[in-house]
Write a structure and sequence with these properties.
Layout (H helix, E strand, L loop, with lengths): L7 E4 L3 E7 L2 E6 L3 E6 L4 E2 L6 E5 L2 E8 L5 E2 L7 E6 L5 E6 L1 E6 L2 E6 L13 E5 L2 E5 L2 H8 L6
Parallel strand pairs: 3-14, 7-10
Antiparallel strand pairs: 1-12, 2-3, 2-11, 4-9, 5-6, 6-7, 7-8, 9-10, 12-13, 13-14
Length: 152
């Protein structure tokens, strides 16, 4: 969709999980979500100050983002952790204030104008539903924000 074009409307749209990170609301497709866990289950590593959660004997890194979706390090546990998996089977935990599954009956999608697009931007589409604004992203894009060069 080009800037200035009419927005696309999804009726009876797909299911999403809404993550609230401060005032930012991110929508991830629910097929990327493995579980939503309490933040109290997150452990701090001693070696590199990273955080992780153990699910089914698997250690999964937990990442924190600010409202602008910039990764940062913290020792504070938010109230919930959303455990996500991308198509390549990478798993991450995203620390958030709140997470909930939602179905948007009517959602208008608005692509960002070309001048605002950036390869490092995790958001490329904005959704509007019932006067609420959501940023649609995916785990692959969020993983790109947190992975250091040279990591697998």
């Amino acid at each position: 969709m080009n800037a200035g074009a009419n927005p696309t409307t999804l009726n009876n749209g797909p299911d999403f999980v809404r993550l609230s990170i401060g005032k930012t609301r991110i929508l991830l497709h629910d097929d990327e979500i493995l579980s939503i866990e309490p933040g109290t289950n997150v452990k701090q590593t001693k070696k590199n100050a990273g955080r992780y959660i153990t699910i089914n004997s698997k250690v999964i890194p937990v990442y924190d983002f600010d409202e602008d979706l910039r990764p940062f390090s913290t020792t504070n546990n938010k109230s919930q952790i959303c455990i996500c998996q991308d198509n390549d089977k990478n798993k991450i935990g995203i620390s958030c204030d709140d997470a909930a599954k939602i179905t948007l009956a009517e959602m208008e999608l608005h692509e960002l104008p070309d001048c605002m697009l950036d390869a490092n931007l995790a958001i490329q589409v904005i959704a509007v539903s019932n006067n609420n604004i959501y940023c649609i992203s995916n785990i692959t894009k969020l993983l790109q924000l947190v992975k250091q060069p040279g990591e697998n």
